[in-house]
């Protein structure tokens, strides 16, 4: 199914913070995928859908777990009102937030191949039993039925495993989004705490000045009163 047409899936990016966040998406197989947009920024509380398109190619089962994507995020500096591509140059790796995603191929041909195999086995068994007595004919038909039941059961187990894997991938993506939200909240709290400390320091520095003025005024009044008494 990967040789005739393109296949598109979507990545949802969410910015839960009050700051603009730049993002960049990388893949281990850039020739196989078209990512639009592969970089940009999200405004505070903005949600964006990223289209990931798989180009037609000859499917190799050994590659089904090798393709990966990495989403990098960077909180913009204060007063950054326009897009700034130089944000990614010379940045500290500790400032980057990264999320890694694994690409999983779902091949719908498996069920078709299973049905064709079952039909072929039944036809072969019927051909071999032509001209043989009724007591001999019943045995191959019974075996074919058991084989068909096993194949159907195996196909159901495969579908169940795929559903569980898809649920785990969704849960993993949700956990990564929650982690990104927590990190952004921590950044906002640190900035707020720094502003509070700065304001407290300014008020503490201004207090001695007011106190000194009051002491000077009291001393002048006392001097004036003492001068009158003398």
Automatic annotation (TrEMBL):
One of its GO terms (biological process) is endoplasmic reticulum-plasma membrane tethering. Its main location: membrane. The chain crosses the membrane at residues 209-227. GO terms for molecular function: FFAT motif binding. It holds the Pfam family Motile_Sperm. It is found in: Membrane. Belongs to the VAMP-associated protein (VAP) (TC 9.B.17) family. This is MSP domain-containing protein. It comes from Heterotrigona itama.
């Amino acid at each position: 199914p990967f040789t005739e047409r393109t296949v598109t899936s979507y990545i949802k990016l969410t910015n839960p913070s009050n700051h603009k966040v730049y993002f960049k998406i990388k893949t281990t197989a850039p020739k196989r995928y078209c990512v639009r947009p592969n970089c940009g920024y999200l405004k505070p509380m903005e949600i964006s859908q990223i289209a990931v398109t798989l180009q037609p190619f000859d499917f190799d089962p050994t590659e089904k777990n090798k393709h990966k994507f990495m989403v990098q995020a960077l909180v913009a500096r204060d007063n950054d009102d326009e897009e700034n591509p130089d944000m990614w140059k010379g940045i500290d790796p500790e400032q980057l937030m990264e999320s890694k995603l694994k690409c999983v191929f779902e091949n719908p041909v498996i069920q078709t191949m299973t049905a064709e195999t079952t039909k072929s086995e039944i036809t072969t068994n019927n051909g071999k039993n032509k001209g043989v007595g009724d007591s001999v004919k019943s045995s191959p038909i019974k075996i074919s039925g058991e084989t068909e039941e096993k194949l159907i059961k195996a196909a159901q187990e495969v579908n169940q495993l795929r559903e569980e894997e898809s649920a785990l991938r969704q849960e993993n993506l949700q956990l990564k989004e929650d982690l990104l939200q927590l990190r952004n909240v921590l950044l906002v709290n640190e900035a707020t705490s720094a502003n509070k400390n700065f304001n407290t320091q300014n008020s503490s520095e201004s207090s001695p000045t007011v106190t000194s003025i009051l002491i000077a005024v009291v001393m002048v009044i006392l001097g004036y009163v003492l001068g009158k008494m003398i």
